[in-house]
Every structure is written in structure tokens, then in C-alpha cells.
Amino acid sequence: MKEVLLSDLLAGALHRDAEQPLQRQIYDIVRRCVLDHTLLPGQRLPSSRALAADIGVSRITITLAYDRLIAENYLSSRGGSGTFVEHTVERPLTAASPAALQRHRPALSTRGAANGSRRGGLAQHTGAFVPGIADAGLFPFHLWRRLVARHLNKSDLSLAGYAKDGAGFMPLRQAISNYLRISRSVVCEPAQVILTAGTHQSVDLCARLLADPGDAALVESPCHWAFPLVLDAAGLRVHAATLDEHGIALADTTLPRRARLAITSPSHQYPTGVVMPLARRLELLQAARAAGLWVIEDDYDSEFRYDGAPIPSLQGLDTDGRVIYMGTFSKTMFAGLRFSYIVVPPHIADACAQACARLYRPGHLHLQAALADFMNDGHFAQNIKRMRVEYGERQRLLRIALQARAGGLVTLSEARAGLHVYARLDRAVSVARLTAAADEEALVLGVPHFLPEHAARDRNAVVLGYGGVPAARIDDGVARFARALDKAVATARTRAARG
Prior knowledge:
Layout: H1 6-11, H2 22-35, E1 44-45, H3 48-55, H4 59-71, E2 75-78, E3 82-85, H5 98-104, H6 110-117, H7 141-151, H8 170-183, E4 193-196, H9 199-210, E5 216-220, H10 226-233, E6 237-241, E7 243-244, E8 247-248, E9 259-264, H11 278-291, E10 294-298, E11 323-328, E12 340-343, H12 346-359, H13 365-376, H14 379-406, E13 410-412, E14 420-425, H15 431-440, E15 461-465, H16 474-498
Parallel strand pairs: 5-6, 5-9, 9-10, 10-11
Antiparallel strand pairs: 1-3, 2-3, 4-12, 7-8, 11-12, 13-14, 14-15
Helix pairs in contact: 2-4, 3-4, 7-13, 8-13, 9-10, 14-16, 15-16
Pfam families: Aminotran_1_2, GntR
Family: In the C-terminal section; belongs to the class-I pyridoxal-phosphate-dependent aminotransferase family.
Domain HTH gntR-type: 20-88
């Protein structure tokens, strides 16, 4: 068969000013023409030298495109004869109709469709009043850059590979263990510390190791939006645990069949701010023992308490080896670091490390080494002290401003801790109308996430985060919040008058 005039085909299809390299464009054009039989099986293509000259590109560009097409069996090279189009499909591929595409397109699984359709988190990550966000502007990035650069060289290439131990870089695990024993009364050795890529992965690991598909997990309601999503994705049935003014109350919760896990935030419940007293903590551990439950303690922002010393951990009271302690660096450093950790009982530490290695293939060892230095050199403790003072002042200013501008319509949570306050609204204020009005004021309000069993419960509250709001801008944010409140109340009254 005569040689095809491939140069003519390419001349009209190549875009020399496009971002996509010419080599990739040539590959895509020839591949598509082979599949739709524009180039017929057995046709001979011009040599790389001739084609390069015809279309005005380098020969290596043509050679690399040909080599890839040959490797993928679209073309074949016959020594001394040239390059030929291979036999690929009996009939040319044609565009299917929309109906045919709908019939034959692979679909997500039921679980995939559910997870893919759920909304989680907030699109905005700074400003008034995005909840749960730390102010990255307070972090000493100049120190962090120097520590990271210290480990970005060829003196220790082991930091450039996968972690030998799935639990993470041992010097960092030692630093975390030392810190938790002192600051949180956590009873642990370095071998019990398992590093993860964020709280989502921490919960996912616990779900996969401590429960089987179809088992049940108890989650406080309201809760952080991610917990039900991650647990459900791991194949667990998620049920609401009763939450009262003292925190999670297993004694008042109907345990579902095959209950295996309970997640709680005893030191500062998200989002309500409830603090679990000692008596309730002991009751929780006794109830968990009786029910055979693992307890996952989420201690996400325990460093930030402004009215006294931090409350000791629930894990420090555990004598059964059933509490998994969960912490994160997203609040104490910066969110994009994506470093968290769990502290597990000694008898499951090896299994957790092996599971991390096999499921997640952890890396980022140079960052883990830098974080170990950051902690061991005292920068971590100094940073927490600075942030505690700053955030304490922001919460104080927020409470004062809210009392002055919206005191009659809003009741705040009592806990002097964390990066947010829980604001219960007057009955005259609709959360839906308030969030809509807040959007007009360029404000972001957190809406508490309740589980379906608690759909009928009082949901008239919003979450106000102050971590990402400089102290000088809090009063302005509250002024806009007060305007949004007035709009929501006025809208409600207008509708009532028309009704």
C-alpha cells in the first residue's frame, strides 16, 4: 500500500501555540485516526525524518510519538520497510448516541454514588466566621522553611522514599509521645503513636481495623460532618449517640446491633462546645466496657483552652486498652500540612502500623523529620503559647461584640476553648434565612450536622469560627452578623404577616 500523506493530515490539526506539546498532539491525532479508520490497517507512514521535514518539527518529536504508538500497538515497525498502521478493531469506532452512552457507560457503585453526592466541608477557608480554621498567618513559616530545607538534601536519601515503618518517622513519634504525656496526660510510648494524613484517614484506619462491614458506629449528634461520611464509606452503619449537657451519654443511647465504635470529643465537643466532666468520663468507660465498644477520643483542639489548664484526656483514664486517642496538627500549625496521629493500645500497635503501610503507603518523611525538629527544638510549644493568647483574645472580643450587638437573639456556648463558639438562636430566627442573609453580608456560618435519627431535634443554632478572623476585624464581622440577624427576623415577620 502506498505511503499515506500524513503531513497533510497533521498540518491542519496541529496547534503550535497550545500548551500541549507537539509530540503529544501528534500521538493523539494518529491514534484517533487509527481507531476511526481514517488511517487504514497496513498503510505505510512516512519516515520520521521525512515527516519532520514536511511539517517543520524536530525529528526527535516524531520519533518519540512513533515509539509510543508502536509500543501501544497502533503502529508497527518493520525493519527496512518502514512504519505501518496496525490492525486494531474490525470496524471503525464511531461516536455513540447519548442514549447509547447512557446505557453502556460504567456507573458508580451505590456507595460511590452516595459518597460522591454528599457535600462536606466549606468552600471558603478563611474569614468571618468560617468554623474550625486556624490562622496560617500566625505560623512561623520562616522557621519551618529552614527546618524543611535541612532535610531536603542527599545526605539522607532514606527520607526520599517510602516510610520503612508504616506508623511513621520514629523521632517524630517520640516527640509526639513526649508532648502528649506532659500536656494531655496521655499514657503512651512512641510505638503506640501512628501518624496519619489527617483526621479523615485516622477515622478510616480505625473503622477498617476495629470493625467489620455492617458493624455499627455511634457518633455524637450534632457532630463534625466528616465522621458519618468516612465511617459509612468504610462500610459501617452510623447511628446517633445521645448528647446532653455533659457530653455523650451511652447509658441513654439505644445501642444498635453489632455496635463496635463510639466517637466522642470529651474535652471540647464539636460543635456544641460541651465539656465532659470526670464522672461522665468514668461512666462512658464503664458503659463501653459493658457493651464491648472501642472509644475513639477526638482531641482536635485541646491546646486552646482559655479559662484554665487543659482538661486531661479520656485515654489517660482508660484501664482496658479500649480508647484510641486522636489528634491533629491542623489547628496548632496549618491545615495544609495534613499531619495527624492516633495513639493506640500496645496490643494493636503493630497491626495498625502494618495496616498503614499496606493501605496508605505513607511518605513525606522529610516533612516528618522537619516536624520532629520543630517540636524538639521548642518551636511547637512556643507557637502554641502565642496562638493560645491570640485566639483567647479573639474569642473574648467576639463574645463582647455579640453581647452588645445581638445579645437578645443569640446565646453562646460556655466553654472558653477552641476556635469557634456555638450560637443558639432565638426562636424568631430561622437558620436557613440567617445563612442566606449572612451570605449577602459575605459571612460564612457553620450549620451543625445532625444525624438522621435526630432530625426532629432543636437545630436552631450556628457555628461561629474566629480562628481565621484577626482581632481588629471581629467587630466588623459581628456588625455584619447582626445585620444578617435583623434581615432574617424581618423576613420571618413579613412572611408571618402575609400568612
